[in-house]
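Following up on my earlier message about NAI. Here are the inputs again, as you asked, copied directly from the submission form:
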Amino acid sequence: MKTTSHDSVKAIFESLEYGPAPESADAAMAWLERHGRSFGHFIGGRFVEPAEGERFATVHPGDGSELGQVAQGGEEDVDGAVRAAEQALPAWQGLTPFERARHLYALARHVQKHARLLAVLEALDNGKTIRETRDIDVPLVARHFYHHAGWAQLLESEFPGYQAVGVCGQVIPWNFPLLMLAWKVAPALAAGNTVVLKPAEFTPLTALAFAELAAEAGLPPGVLNVVTGDGRTGAALVAHDGLAKVAFTGSTEVGRIIRQATAGRGVKLSLELGGKSPFLVFDDADLDSAVEGVVDAIWFNQGEVCCAGSRLLVQESVAARMEEKLRARMETLREGPSLDKAMDIGAIIAPVQLDKITRLVEQCRAEGGRCYQPSWASSLAEDGGLFFPPTLFSEVAPSSAAAQEEIFGPVIVSMTFRTPEEAVELANNTRYGLAASVWTENVNLALDIAPKLEAGVVWVNCTNVFDAASGFGGYRESGFGREGGREGMFEYLKPSWEAGLPAYAADELWSGPNGAALGEGAPGADGPGPGGAIDRTAKLYIGGKQARPDGNYSYPVLGADGSHLGEAPLGNRKDVRNAVEAARKGSGWSKATAHNRAQVLYYLAENLQARAAEFIHRLRAMTGATDADAMREVEASVRRLFVYAALADKYDGAVHATPFRNVTLAMPEPWGVMAVVAPDEAPLLAFVSLVAPALAMGNRVVAVPSARWPLAATDLYQVIDTSDVPPGAVNIVTGDREELAAVLAKHADVAAMWYVGTADGSAVVERESADNLKATWVNGGKRRDWLDPGQGEGREYLRRATRIKNIWVPYGE
Ligand code: NAI
Ligand code: MG
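Thanks, got it. Here's what our run produced:
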């Protein structure tokens, strides 16, 4: 028996060196061996041989050892999986919510039961530390299924009027393989959908293990299918026409490709993409806590975290002290084998990622950044494996690549600010908007800053905390949609009214002044409208003023009987740009109180009512409606304004019940600048139905009214002028619907867009928005009944007119 000498114990106490504390890999190895270290896809409740024989290795990044061979899924495999999910759908949806809840509950129980296997397998396949998989990833996975077992149970009472979307295709990354599976699969199943999941090529094992556990737990075959493979498999999956929904987490670049691949297919989409999240430290912050915060922000999971706090912004007066403390803390971090329970940082996922980190770090050095790494960094490389040391850059220019690009590694860049205004400006100086962390002991300051940050999650005096009850997701190029909480459930549901809409009849939508051959001899068909004594040429409405169109062209508006009713401006690209600029400047509307917005909407309603006769006359002349129908449309428009005036101060946020000493505020925020494009029919009511909810929630709107009959909207200018609507809150550009819609979709300063028109136009809007990743809501060529409040108004409109920001505020000492 080996004995430890008194001296060596003493030496250990003096140096406080850690000895190795390995977790056993036995359970994971046994699982791999049981499968002969070779895996097919998991389809229809069992492992199946891939259609083509191609396989590839998945390795442990810590030492490069091969863990097993997995299949490279092709189109045939994907098709088989989607079919299995389709076949499983009716029976799965036929279950009662209670029965589905029991299945989700069983999944949570099984995750807990097999927590050790899953934690070890995850650490091996990804290279992250066992401490994280055991204490963070796997418990959060179980929590996610428990939480969503609840939503499954409460589906009918909590989401009345909504239904499951169908088969969901889900593509996930390698940084949190099992947790991302949970974030995707749990809400999808809870809502009554079936799933085909494609895990990342570097980390397919826990998804396969989970699918197997799910089958053991009694999940019906085909409800959850897993197809492995690389980006080609992912591309084949998102291209499959059997999908009703695609959910993706990964790089912004691939997010754009997926936005394009799904455009025009009526596929519901959520994208959780990259980030370059700010970590703000104010001069009154508890610096020691903030230092621990930085450790969790950027050295958690090797910095391979989409919401990693990778830009450290420190108030100038405490910057030197903060850096000193941070350097001291970096010295004590431990990096090494994943299964060593005392490690803080594990291995980088793959050589390609290590190269990317190395390249960006070299670039930052070359750009003059001052680089600090702990003294032990140099010995790291000797151990082999894909390790990169914790790295802190200071003296970095805000515009440098290191400050702008997502490095996705353990590298933080630090900058300083003087005032809170400057802090907000620096924080928002990014194309991303996933998360932000704010450190100050002053709650007034924290809650003043949080709403000003363009990010989906704001952590006050904490960072990288997650819970199933709280939504997670981005602003701007970090994508759209939320995962977790009530807001996340909506990503897997659709309003039942939307599901049942008919398509427009062939000639119901006018192809627009550019698309249509203008009636022969129609006045103004090819030039400026007729001037004359009575100028019947309407103008555009931009920044609270009537404006001539840039091109000075107009087009005739013809009545149902062919009579010439007047001229509408033919707005172009430049006019759209001016309107967006005016909306951008009209930010006061977004800051107005909800009460104030309600008053303005009531005022609009009142003024419209006062001129009802005029509008009835206009509608009759344009659409040929009967007196009664025209009256009904005007009345419905007034009522709709009343409804949104009423709702303006009643669309509340929530305080999520996250299991910490903490309030998590789920705040609905306006998008800022929104575009709405209205169809031809019901030219007053459809226009009001789209503009009013956007306004009620505090958006500034650029609206394109009915192309065929725009005069009901241009008649509104005077109503708007007399209703205290501030300049820039509503901007109206008439002209060719499809042309204007495409320009708006492409415009980077339009954050969200609703389009109601043709199927082709819907596709264009989704495709053209891929570059700026705005959130879109299109009708896919389906006709709504605007008079029916079930279709033409309601909370779905308000939900689409806002995005949820979750602000985490811990309390207690
Ligand atoms: P990626 O975005 O290419 O991969 C994510 C997932 O998408 C994987 O399952 C992949 O197989 C799949 N995929 C790739 N191309 C696809 C396509 N055309 N259609 C459908 N699915 C496709 O990310 P990758 O290559 O692993 O990493 C590249 C960079 O992306 C990283 O350096 C990092 O900066 C960033 N990244 C960000 C993540 C985040 O959560 N924000 C997660 C992973 C990577
Ligand atoms: Mg691997």
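One observation from looking it over: The longest strand covers residues 662-670. Hope that helps, and feel free to reply on this thread.
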